[in-house]
Amino acid sequence: MKIIVLKLIIIFYFLVNTLHAKSEYFDEGVVLYNKQKFKEAQFKFEQEIVFNPKSELSYLYLSKIFNKLDKKDLEEQNLNTVMLLNPKNEEAIYNLAKLKLASSDYKKSKELNNRLGSLCSKFCNKNSKLKIEIENLSRK
Q1: Do residue 16 and residue 68 come from a single domain?
Q2: % pLDDT > 70, the chain
């Protein structure tokens, strides 16, 4: 009985340390991102994803990094992943709508903006501005 309890304590100890390490990768990535050290931040967010494949915020930050590095395909991939993990992530929907608008996909941009409008709480103001922008550009 003592052996089983000892094994459980050891397993619990390593599990807690592993979980702690995962959050450190994300936190370090945010710090590096804020310092505009995008390549280093990218590595930290990718490390976080290795340990936590459902890290919605890591994918969101990766999309922001790829936006800064002008890698639109990778930005879109990560935004789509965020939306798979959380279909109500307003920032991902907004950023993807902007990305689609920039690539002249007015239909998809409008669809995403309508979706954002139906659930917005933080991005309502940006939603309205984007709606006007889509309408103006789609008329040309």
Answers
A1: yes
A2: 73
For residues 43 and 28, give the distance between their C-alpha atoms in angstroms, rounded to a whole number.
Answer: 10
Q: CATH number of the domain that 27 lies in?
A: 1.25.40.10
Residue ranges with strand state E in the chain: none
Amino acid letter for position 49:
I
- pTM listed for this prediction: 0.76
DSSP assigned state of 53? T
Q: Are 13 and 75 in the same domain?
A: yes
Residues 80, 74: Cα–Cα separation, whole Å: 10
Residue whose structure tokens are 């935004």: 79
65 and 5 in a single domain? The answer is yes
Query: Distances from the Cα of 57 to the Cαs of 9, 48, 54, 68, in angstroms?
Result: 31, 10, 9, 17
Q: What pLDDT score was predicted for residue 103?
A: 85
Residues spanned by the domain of 8:
1-86
Instruction: Please say whether the beta carbons of 58 and 48 come within 8 A.
Output: yes
In one letter, which amino acid is 84? L
**DSSP-assigned letter for residue 37:** -
